[in-house]
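[Meeting: bench + compute handoff]

Bench side (C.D.) handed over the final construct sequence. Compute side (W.E.) agreed to return the predicted structure before the next meeting so the bench team could plan truncations. Sequence as handed over:
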Amino acid sequence: MENENVSLEGKTKNKSLTIISWVVGVLLALTGFVSLFSDLIPGLFLLLAALVILKPTRQFVMSKIPIQIGRSIKIGIAVLFLVIAGATMETKPRQDVASNNSAGQAQESESTQTTVAPIEQVAAKPKTLEERITSTINTSLGSQTNTKKPRVVEVILDPYKPSMLTEYGYKGGESVTGVLIKINSDENLTTNLQKGTMHNEATKTAQAIFPLNSTIGDIIIWSQLPVKDQYGNVKDGTAIVYSIARPLFAKINWSNFNHRDLPTLLKSESRIDDRNNYYEAIKF
């Protein structure tokens, strides 16, 4: 009779542990999946911890490994993944608070100085068009990618030559500028998701840049990703090039436009105006 009670107590305890592991594993999996899109590394390690904790995924992985791993080692691996996830989580909010405090102190100091400074020195220097473009892109897409790289790499203004003015129907002597923009793209998990991310960034960039200045005739966006060359070296390089002219920008109903249609639209519009184009510089 006593053995039956002990056996029943053991089964109840194992059942409770199974329920707890499922709850913890599912919560970690959901949290890790959501975190992948904002903080890649912690999200990945949360998913790995969930993989170890959830019995079906753990058994699947163990079946592929030729050696037996004890329960204590499995628990240790899960704890290690959780520690790594916690250690790599973003601490930006605290930094922002500190930087905001510093900025507030700097502004207070500047406001004190303006009481004795000449009016000519107080007037803010107007931003150049390059600076306004950079600031607008940072506002639209974020100043950093999800891998903590600066968003805007380079902005170049390329004034139209007289021959280009004639070719695209402008008046002689009119001021028209092409804008060349190099940005780092957010990174994603699959080829389809990655392309969708880059198309969305290009769409938002066009919507933000053209309204800045009426003299902008077209924009070319070089969207960068880490690219491995033939020697195995990895560095940031152009992955997709988007070329968009103002006449096409004006024709699009942006409120109903799907960013995934951008490549097809640019290719078809290139027959009308060769300033519109889409080109994949790497093989996805």
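W.E. noted at the follow-up: The CA atoms of residues 21 and 53 lie 6 Å apart. C.D. will use this when planning the next construct.
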